[in-house]
Amino acid sequence: MSSVSGAALGIGVIGKIEPAGVGRAGLRIEAGLDLEPPRAGAPRAAVKTCSVLVLTKNEEANIEECLMALSFSDDVVVLDSFSTDRTVEIARRFPNVRVIQRAFDTEFMQRNHGLHEVAYRNDWVYVCDADERVTPALAAEITAKINEGERADAPVAYRMRYRNMFMGRWIRHASSYPVFIIRLVKPSRVRYETRETNVHPIIDGAVGELREYFLHYSFNKGLRAWFTKHNYYSDREALEAVRVRSSAPCITSVLSKDPMVRRRTLKNLSFFLPARQAWRFVHDFVIKGGFRDGLPGVHYCLLIAMYEYWIGLKIREREHNWKGRNEDIVARLLAETPVTAAKAAARRWNAATEARVVRHAPASPTYPAARPAARLRAAVA
Question: Are 156 and 98 in contact (CB under 8 A)?
């Protein structure tokens, strides 16, 4: 199915594909929304939907399927970091998609720009990455929630769980499912924290929770792309870890009622652990039962442990200033003048030559064969 036809097909929010041309007006609403079909002659109630923000950089392998799953929205904004592949070309085929380009600086600034510097058609924005897929059931629940009546204590953001996919299966145990993440927000009440990577939103108001989940295809672009991405992530994590380790951690946040605050606190505490990669493997493979995910679970746990090893090694590199120490050694080696260096080399050559001469000479010091060594010593003295 081409991109255009996929976008034109209105995927109903309960998962049924509506005929082409029906579009948003033909979306079916899940039972429980309390929107009854209008009687004959009565005006049709307007069904609210949400806008969507998708952050991209060279995502041609993912963007088409991602946008096809977002056809329940009439306003999808692709915030692209000047991709050099076909990401923008593919995205512009969809009639409900706008493409905005901005040079990437940091993750939190890019996400805050997407929420606060873009004019959206709807009050709610669903934040999505290109390697994620919104299921029809999740689309139905999102539509149901934003069409509920407004209350004074109504949530201004919703968190939901996701399923990590690897080697053709859901990694249920090794990925510590369920892990909740905030994705549906009112932009005016949300901003992203200042952090090097894996930033979390800070919410001004109540946070609700959705029952459904989205699918995460982190390995869709291949292992080489995963290694490249996580090499970059480990750089940022190491920077953040050095900052966290420079002061005492706030242990009391482990008791927070907010699962995301607890998870962030445990993450920061883990920066103080020795051999983090070993702890992570034991946690994922043994404690969480990653062995129950079969061979994909074994590979997944090893990959995540390797990622943690990279972070730990880069933390030591920064805290112990390996680069600075190496440069000091090189500077000392290069401090010798060319004449001094030449004499040192001549001495080493002379010592080797003398050893060979003496080895074959008689014991008498007057033997002519021993004299070249003496002359060499005088020449370089």
Answer: no
Distance CA 124, CA 146 (A): 7
Provide the H-helix boundaries in the chain. 3-8, 63-68, 87-91, 107-116, 136-146, 223-245, 259-270, 276-281, 294-319, 322-334, 338-360, 371-380
Q: What is the pTM of this model?
A: 0.71
User: What is the identity of the amino acid at 54?
Assistant: V
Which residues does 164 contact at the CB level (< 8 Å), separation at least 6? Answer: 170, 171, 175, 177, 216, 218, 300
List pLDDT tens digits, range 134-193.
999 999 999 999 998 778 889 999 999 999 999 999 999 999 999 999 999 999 999 998
> How far is residue 267's CA from residue 336's CA, in Å, rounded to a whole number?
48
- The domains found in the chain, sorted by start residue, are 3-216 (3.90.550.10), 223-323 (no CATH), 336-380 (no CATH)
Torsions phi, psi of 163, nearest 5? Answer: -115, 120
